[in-house]
Amino acid sequence: MVAKVKMLIDGQFIESSGETVTVVQNPATSEILAHTPQCTNAELLKAVQSAKEAFKSWREVPTPERARMFLKYQDLVKKNQDELAKLVSQENGKIFSDAQGDVWRGIEVIEHACNIPSLMMGETVENVARNIDTMSLVQPLGVCAGITPFNFPAMIPLWMFPLAIACGNTFVLKPSEQDPLTALRLGELFVEAGFPKGVLNIVHGAKPTVDFLLTNPDIKAISFVGSAPVAQYIYKTAAENKKRVQALAGAKNHMIVMPDASKNNVISALTGASCGAAGQRCMAISVAIFVGESKNWISDIQESMKQIQLGAWNDSSAMVGPVISEKAKLRINDLIATGQKEGAKLLVDGRNPSVPSCPKGHFVGPTLFTDVKPEMKIYQEEIFGPVLLTMTADTLEQAIEIINNNPFGNGTSIFTASGAAARKFTHSIDVGQVGVNIPIPVPLPFFSFTGWKNSFYGDLHAYGKEAIKFYTQTKTITSRWFDVVNSQTNGPNMTIRLG
Ligand code: NAD
């Protein structure tokens, strides 16, 4: 019998009594790994109540002590990083080195959370009026919730709960129902690190679980990462229910290739950025705009794509794994057919590739289109597969205009040897994450990560440096200290004890 993925509620790993399930499969083999339950409303309520109760005491834990607990958690996740990466590979399909990167990027966020005392410092101005000082305190919100996508089963949950919890909040996490096993293992390590019960709860399910979290009055803030239509729904519904919301959404990331760029770097960067992780990265490059004579390199990209070996995570020759599910594969294949019908030229067709070692895997091979026009569906929609669209432009200005007219704005990059071209591009491009001679410019957590336009909705303090502002609120206190009985006001840098 296939086991149901457990929930983490009030410090206990328990099985849901929900009867509807989503099948979790190894996408390379179709082996059934587990069943994700649709948790019942009573179970969801218990998780939120546990988080609400835990908040009362967790917010009182001194900030440096919270940081110390995250040091322990970081150590545990680091010690278990390869085991976690294996789990990521098995349930998500990405090759092992990609999965290791997924876990490592999450560890970096935990390390950022370990700096919480300095990240939560408020501000003070002495003598805003005669004998009156003003200070701001940075305080947690209460119960926060996170809803995560399938494509980074370790990193994206770790974008959310460590920072929220380090700030003094408690958390309810709903991982993707397609690959929730990594999140559960992260929860086991969290409990092992000694965090009190109820500080982190993990619940499961699809839309009904999300709707419960979006409407429950005890949840103060919602962090979401996923596709654009769902992000818009989350943004609207969470706001209607008077919650803070940050919704990181889909993408269509462009790379501009200037004729003065290093050809070899362009070919390897573009092949990797469009096909790596089977194109299932929100920062994958899915459109390349060749300026001027650089269009002659398209045939080299075509050759480079043909060299990519497909296979399962534990096949050491595999460079790219399967896509997440049969449904995702069929959707990508349909979009490739649509592109052909719309008049784009299919130079490399990745549909139904032969992968003899994985006959039941959900594989789509590298796919390359030329002659793509902005009005085509393959250009308008995020394909989220290893499909690269190419366009041409006569000038850098034209290429920038194409990108700025695209409704998404998650990531972009330029390959050039010209400082002037790079400066013009970085200054005028309407996109949140920008690379120069770097194909996937994902910043580390001590910088901000926010897409622009349709790649982001809600509060602009998303993952990274600014996330602390999302998970906290500022209390501003203006005081005339000499009227406070027993206060000690003798000198700068003092710790004032009023109790
Ligand atoms: P998805 O939107 O299908 O699912 C994301 C989450 O929303 C899951 O937990 C899912 O259970 C839930 N969900 C799905 N449909 C829902 C609905 N109708 N109502 C309420 N909740 C629903 O996304 P996905 O396919 O899991 O992930 C891929 C998408 O995520 C891509 O669009 C990718 O670009 C995006 N993504 C964005 C970023 C970013 O930083 N901007 C990062 C990673 C992934």
The number of helical elements comes to 16
What is the percent of helical residues?
25-40%
Record the strand order, biggest sheet: 14-15-16-13-12-18-19
Structural class: alpha/beta
Q: State the end-to-end distance.
A: 58 Å
Let me know the average pLDDT. 95
Q: What percentage of the residues does DSSP assign to strands (E)?
A: 15-25%
By DSSP, the count of extended strands is 22
Ions, cofactors and other bound molecules? nicotinamide-adenine-dinucleotide
Strand count, sense and closure of the main sheet? Answer: 7 strands, mixed
Q: What does the radius of gyration come to?
A: 24 Å
Low-confidence stretches: none
**Overall shape:** globular
Describe the protein in words.
The chain has 16 helices and 22 strands. It is globular. The strands form 6 sheets. The protein has a 7-stranded mixed beta sheet with strand order 14-15-16-13-12-18-19, sandwiched between helices. The chain has a 6-stranded mixed beta sheet with strand order 9-8-7-10-11-21, with helices on both faces. It is of the alpha/beta class and 499 residues long. 36% of the residues lie in helices and 22% in strands. α2 runs antiparallel to α4 (96-113) and α3 packs antiparallel against α7 (181-192). The structure holds nicotinamide-adenine-dinucleotide (NAD). Nicotinamide-adenine-dinucleotide binds at residues 147-152, 174, 176-177, 206-207, 210, 225-227, 230, 233, 248-251, 282, 382, 384, 410, 451, 455.
